[in-house]
Amino acid sequence: MSTHVTKISEIERKHYVVDAEGKVLGRLATVVASVLRGKGKVNFSTHLDTGDFVVIVNASKIVITGKKLETKTYFSHSGHPGGARYITMKKLMEIRPEDVVRRAVRGMLPKNKLGRAMLKKLRVYAGPQHPHEAQQPEVLEV
Question: Residue 52 above 90 pLDDT?
Fold first, then answer.
């Protein structure tokens, strides 16, 4: 018997919408990362992007456990000397709650070109509206 190798032309992608209201951030991110990667599909391959598109709504209403709101910091750098920037999770949730969810999912994807391609299939919105109704997304329960 020979092993079936999935071709790019055989990949079928669906669209899912996830309501993040009342969901714990890390548990939501693990499910979303798995769907983006395509781990639940029978034609999953580690070297191909076989995952589906995911739209997350109500990102501003996620639940963060413990003291992470006060203690967790996010780091970025401008590339210039002294260009380090730190921002707490609480401040980032006030400014851009979508970034908190996107960063959590990004940390659970591969750290290479394939992971960056998978992240492009994720759309996060702070409120309940999203402009992806034309794709007829299915509701994904977390």
Answer: yes
